[in-house]
Amino acid sequence: MPDEREVLTWDLFGRASRRLAEMVAADGFRPDLILAITRGGLFPAGALGYALSVKNLHTMNVEFYTGVDQHLEMPVVLPPVPQVVDLTGARVLIADDVADTGETLRLVRDFCADHVAEARCAVLYEKPRSLVKCEYVWRSTDRWIDFPWSTEPAVV
């Protein structure tokens, strides 16, 4: 069925983010900070921060998707841009909801590359076509994903 979708509920998100944190911990990676790709990455980043006892969370606002399977030609970093001095020498866990094309993750990972000691990526979902193969993935899918934070229309 071509319009079949992955549906992530709030309850399943709790279990998925906990499992993602367990993967990071089992791998022995101890991030100094978590870099959330906003907006969808805010939710897994917060959950990972609590589960991994990491209080140092940063955000990087990247615009790419404009609708269901609709996106800009290239991802664009929106202000405020993280200060490189805050990342220098750190072990960074980049968190996002999905590695779809991988363009956004690649942009963020490249931004970090010359400044951090190490950067790894954690996502709830990874699609087979993603240019970036994440170190920590809860589930792989090739379907569109309905996230609990973005399925309802805005109230304004």
UniProtKB/TrEMBL annotation:
<keyword id="KW-0328">Glycosyltransferase</keyword>
<keyword id="KW-0808">Transferase</keyword>
<protein>
    <submittedName>
        <fullName>Phosphoribosyltransferase</fullName>
    </submittedName>
</protein>
<feature type="domain" description="Phosphoribosyltransferase">
    <location>
        <begin position="6"/>
        <end position="152"/>
    </location>
</feature>
<dbReference type="GO" id="GO:0016757">
    <property type="term" value="F:glycosyltransferase activity"/>
</dbReference>
<dbReference type="InterPro" id="IPR000836">
    <property type="entry name" value="PRTase_dom"/>
</dbReference>
<dbReference type="InterPro" id="IPR029057">
    <property type="entry name" value="PRTase-like"/>
</dbReference>
<dbReference type="Pfam" id="PF00156">
    <property type="entry name" value="Pribosyltran"/>
</dbReference>
